[in-house]
Write a structure and sequence with these properties.
Layout lengths: L13 H11 L4 E7 L2 E6 L4 H10 L7 E9 L7 E9 L4 E9 L5 E2 L8 H12 L3 E2 L28 E6 L4 E6 L32
Parallel strand pairs: 2-5, 6-7
Antiparallel strand pairs: 1-2, 3-4, 4-5, 8-9
Length: 210
């Protein structure tokens, strides 16, 4: 299938682009869908770099801008992670979303050789989800602190975290301690997210007057 090259607002629609990608890369693409006007292409993990290069270099797509790479956690699945790539073609005035699936142990090939800006996007996905990217030159945490435990955007990660950080004036250094939530065990005199109002404030008795 060939796309008619028309720049800017008159470019091909998401269904045309999706069909062009699938028909051009039948061994690498599992399928595509369009929802709310947005195109999502499902790519086999081992072929992600091939698809990224095709979308960047093919004259009828020209998706030359990588906007973002992020992760999605589906803990009930065997391949629990989606790695999601968002690309922009300013020439065609179009966007595409690529999705690949992987598990906790299987890395996805780094996209840095195709889009150098993928460097920090992949580091963020590694930091937040523990998704590994093979071939990355510096795959280490990006947003969390040194010695951080776990991966904050995994579904099983506790909202309170595992450790808290504070400055100890006596030791004159930053210390790490297990999270403590003493507020959850206190009683409050007024409004409480756990117990609510326990007494009538002055003036509230008028609300019950007939």
């Amino acid at each position: 299938m060939s796309l008619k090259f028309v720049p800017f607002a008159e470019g091909p629609g998401p269904h045309e682009i999706g069909a062009h990608i699938q028909n051009s890369m039948t061994d690498a693409v599992e399928g595509y869908e369009v929802a709310h006007g947005e195109l999502t292409v499902h790519v086999k993990r081992e072929h992600i770099l091939t698809v990224l290069r095709f979308l960047r270099d093919n004259k009828e797509t020209q998706f030359t801008t990588l906007i973002d790479i992020c992760g999605v956690d589906w803990p009930e699945r065997e391949k629990r992670f989606d790695v999601v790539y968002h690309l922009l073609s300013m020439t065609q005035n179009a966007r595409v979303r690529l999705k690949v699936q992987t598990d906790e142990k299987t890395p996805v090939a780094s996209a840095i050789e195709v889009f150098p800006c993928a460097n920090w996007f992949e580091r963020e996905a590694f930091d937040m989800y523990g998704i590994a990217f093979s071939g990355h030159p510096d795959l280490r945490r990006l947003l969390t602190d040194y010695g951080f435990q776990g991966f904050p955007l995994r579904k099983e990660f506790p909202l309170s975290g595992h450790v808290e950080v504070r400055y100890d004036a006596e030791q004159k250094r930053v210390v790490y301690e297990p999270v403590k939530l003493p507020a959850a065990y206190r009683n409050f005199d007024f409004e409480s997210p756990w117990e609510g109002m326990q007494r009538v404030l002055p003036g509230d008795e008028k609300a019950n007057d007939g």
